[in-house]
Amino acid sequence: MKKHEQWTSKIGFILAAAGSAIGLGAIWKFPYMTGTNGGGVFLLLFIIFTILIGAPMLLGEFIVGRHTQKDAVRAYQTFSPNGKWHYIGYLGAISAGIILSFYSVIGGWILSYLYRSITGQMHGLSNSQYEDLFNQIISNPYEVVIAQFIFMIMSILVVQGGIQKGIERASRIMMPSLFLLFIVLVIRSLSLDGALEGVKFLLQPKFDQVTPNTFITALGQAFFALSVGLSIMVTYSSYLSKEESLVKSASSVVILNIIISVMAGLVIFPSVFALGFSPDAGPGLIFVVLPAVFNKMIFGSFFFSLFLILLLFATLTSVFSILEVIVSVAVKGKQEKRKQATWVTGILTFIIGIPSALSFGVLADVTIFNKTIFDVADYITANISLPLGALLISIFISLKIPKQVLKEEFAIGSKTLASAFAIWYYCIRFVVPIGIILIFLQIIGVF
Q1: b or e along 398-435 (b: 16 or more beta carbons within 10 Å of the residue's beta carbon)?
Q2: Which end of the chain has fewer beta carbons closer than 10 Å to its terminal beta carbon, N or C?
Q3: Is residue 2 part of a domain?
Q4: What is the pLDDT of residues 368-390, one digit of tens each?
Q5: Which residues span the domain enclosing 75?
C-alpha cells in the first residue's frame, strides 16, 4: 500500500480548495442570482453569510479531514466507529456523483461554445439568434453527449494522476491563469462607456429592494459557494500536512472566493449596463446574454473566447474535487487502485449523466414533478442532499468530535486567541445549523 498522499505545499492546497469553490457557482450562478436579487444588497448579504455560515462550515470540514487523514467515509468512522455517522461520507459521494452527472453536461456546453467562438461562428449574430443557438446546442443529442464525454475525459486524465501530479499540478496552472484572465476581462469591461452604472448596481446596496427571499437566497448562495456539504473539503484536507494552519487556509479560500465572485460581477454587469442589456436575465445570462454583449465590443470574439476559457478552467477545478470525493471513497486509501477507480467512476458518471444531457432534446418530454431529468438532478443536490449533508456534518462536529481536539486543530500553525475559537465553536454549533434549517424552510415554501 502506498503512503497517503499529501499536497506538496500550503499554496497548492489553497489553490485546489479555492478552485473547488470557484466554479460554476461563482462565475455562472452568482452573477445571475445577483442580477435577479437587487445587485449590491445581495452581494453585501452574500459576503456576510459567507463569513458567518460558509467559513465556519469550511473550517469544520478541514478539521475532520486533516485530523483523520482519511477519505470521507473513514474520516467519520474514526470519530464514531460504532455509529452510523459514516453514512455522511456515502451521502457526499452519491451527491457528488449526481452533481458531476449534470456539471459535466454544462462543461460540454462550454466546450461547444468555446469551439464556436474560436472558429468565429459566434460573431455577428442578432440577440435572438444567440438564444436560438443556445437552444440548438443543448437540444442536439450528438453534440451534447460527445462534448460531455470530452469534458469527462479531461477531468479523468487529471484526477487519475493523484493529488500532487494530477490535481495540484493542474490547479497551479489553471488558478493563476484564471486570475489573469479575470483581470484582463475586468479591465476591458470597466473601460466601456456607461460601465459605471454596472459597477453601482453591483457595489451600491439598495436596501429598499431587500425582501425575506433576498436574505434566504443570499444565505443559500454563500452556503453553496464554498463547496461545503459534500465532504469535498474533508477529502482535500485529508491530504494536508499536520503543520499547516487550517484557520489561515480557510480564510484564504473564503477571501479568494469572495474576490472571484466580485470580479465575476465586474466582468458581467458593467458590460451588460454599458451595452443596454438587462441584468436580471437569470440562468441564461452567461450563455445567451453575454455572447450578445461581447458581440458589441471591439475584439468581442477574442474577449468572449477568453471568458469561456476562464469558465472552463473554473468548471474543471470544481469537477476535479467532486470526482476526487468519489475516487477517494472507492480506493479506501489504496492508492495503487486510483487509476482504475478514476476511470471506472468517471465513465459511470458520464453514462449516468447522458439522460441529463438529453433533457433538452430527445428526452425533453420526460419529466418528473414537471422537471426535466437535468433539473431533477440539480434540484435534489442543491435543495436536499447538500444542505442535509452540511447539517449532519455540523451536528457531527458538535456531538462527536471532542472539544479539545477541535481546539488543538484550530490552534495549529497560528496564534489564534481563545475567543476566536469560542466564536467559531458557537457558529458551528448554533449559527450554521440554524442557517441551514432556514434554507430548508425556504425550499418547502415557508418563506
Answers
A1: beebeeeebeebbbbbeebeeeebeebbebbbebbbeb
A2: N
A3: no
A4: 989 999 999 988 888 888 889 99
A5: 10-443
